[in-house]
Design goal:
With 294 residues, this protein is of the alpha/beta class. It has two domains: 2-170, no CATH class; 175-286, Alpha-Beta Complex (FdhE-like fold), CATH 3.90.1670. The protein is 48% helix and 12% strand. The chain has ten helices and seven strands. It has helices at 2-22, 27-46, 56-65, 79-96, 101-113, 118-126, 130-140, 144-166, 265-271, 273-281; strands at residues 187-193, 198-203, 209-211, 228-232, 239-244, 249-255, 285-286. Strands 1, 2, 3, 4, 5, 6 and 7 form a seven-stranded mixed beta sheet that branches. Strand 1 and strand 2 (198-203) form a beta hairpin. Helix 1 packs parallel to helix 9 (265-271). Bound molecules: zinc ion (2 copies).
C-alpha cells in the first residue's frame, strides 16, 4: 500500500518537474506545490491506514444502486499527522511564497495562541461547512481560498490512505455515474486513456480515479450529442475542454496519448487554470470546487 502511495508522489513530482520547465509563468505556484508535495509525502509515511468498516456485500449493493461508499463527512482524518502537516504548510507559505507569506504567518500565530484548532478546521472541510472556514478566515484576516486550500492539502494524506484501501474493491469498476463512487465528489479534471480514448475522472474531493460513462455529461447526465461539444486551448493538443450546452458545465480533459500522466492529473488541473478562465469567459461553469483558488 505504501509503495503505491510512494509511486503516486513520485509521479506527481515528475509531472510537476516537466510542467515547471514549460511554464515559467507559473513558477511561483509550482515551486510552492513542489514543497507541498514533499511535505505531504513525508506525512503520508506517518499517517496510519484507517480501519474501514465496509463489508464487500455492502459495497456491492451501494455500487449497484449508485450510492457512493463513504459520505465525505465520514472520512477519517488522522489528526496528529494532519495537524503537523497544516503547520508545515503554513511555514512553507510564510517562507516560500510572497503571495501567501502574510497568511502563513497569521495562521502560525493563531495555531500558537490556540485561536485556530486544526481538528475543527479539518472537520469543517470534510463536512463542507464553508461558513465555519469563512469565520476563521475573517477572524484571522486570511483570504478564504488560501485557508481552504491549506486545510484541504493538510488532510489529503488521510484521504489518500482511505482511497488506497477502498479503491481496491473490484466492484468499483461497475460504477457508471458522473460522480465519484467513493465519496460522491464531482470530477475536477479528466483524462483520455488508451487507444479508444476512454475517460477517467479525478475526484475533486478524495482524489480517486474512476471511469466516466462515454458520451454523457457527468454533471447533468444528458446524452444529447448536439449539446456535448469540446474545444482546444490555443496551439495545444494535450488539453481539451468538454462543455455541455444543457447545464453549462465544463470539464478539462488531458489526452494522455499526447502526454501527461494519469496519476498526476492534479498537477495538470493547476497548470490549466487558463482553460478555466477561457471556459468561464465562454459562459460555462466549473461544477467541482477548485483546490487552488489562490
Ligand atoms: Zn471521491
Ligand atoms: Zn450537462
Amino acid at each position: 500500500m505504501y509503495a503505491e502511495m510512494d509511486d503516486f508522489y513520485q509521479r506527481m513530482k515528475n509531472r510537476l518537474k516537466q510542467c515547471r520547465k514549460e511554464r515559467n509563468d507559473l513558477e511561483e505556484i509550482l515551486a510552492f506545490y513542489d514543497k507541498v508535495l514533499s511535505a505531504q509525502h513525508e506525512t503520508q509515511e506517518e499517517t496510519p491506514l484507517p480501519e474501514i468498516d465496509l463489508a464487500e456485500e455492502q459495497i456491492e449493493v451501494r455500487i449497484a444502486e449508485g450510492f457512493p461508499l463513504i459520505e465525505s463527512g465520514n472520512f477519517s482524518v488522522d489528526s496528529n499527522s494532519s495537524d503537523r502537516l497544516f503547520r508545515r504548510l503554513c511555514q512553507i507559505s510564510e517562507t516560500e511564497n510572497p503571495v501567501l507569506a502574510s497568511a502563513g504567518k497569521a495562521l502560525l500565530a493563531a495555531l500558537d495562541s490556540g485561536t485556530l484548532e486544526t481538528a475543527e478546521l479539518s472537520k469543517a472541510v470534510l463536512q463542507n461547512r464553508v461558513e465555519t472556514i469563512e469565520g476563521y478566515a475573517k477572524d484571522l484576516e486570511v483570504p478564504l481560498p488560501v485557508l481552504q486550500a491549506l486545510a484541504k492539502l493538510s488532510i489529503q494524506p488521510s484521504l489518500l490512505a482511505t482511497v488506497a484501501i477502498v479503491g481496491k474493491s473490484s466492484e468499483l469498476n461497475k460504477w457508471r455515474y458522473g460522480y465519484c463512487p467513493i465519496c460522491g465528489g464531482l470530477p475536477a479534471i479528466a483524462a483520455l486513456v488508451g487507444e479508444e480514448g476512454k475517460r477517467k475522472a479525478l475526484c475533486s474531493f478524495c482524489g480517486h480515479l474512476w471511469w466516466l460513462p462515454r458520451l454523457v455529461c457527468p454533471f447533468c447526465d444528458t446524452e444529447s450529442q448536439e449539446d456535448l461539444r469540446y474545444f482546444f486551448g490555443e496551439g495545444d493538443d494535450l488539453y481539451r475542454v468538454q462543455v455541455c450546452l444543457q447545464c453549462k458545465g465544463y470539464l478539462k480533459v488531458v489526452d494522455t496519448r499526447e502526454g501527461g500522466d494519469l496519476m498526476a492529473l492534479a498537477v495538470d488541473d493547476v497548470v490549466t487554470a487558463h482553460l478555466d478562465l477561457l471556459a468561464e469567459e465562454e459562459g460555462y461553469q466549473r461544477k467541482a470546487p477548485r483546490l487552488w483558488g489562490i
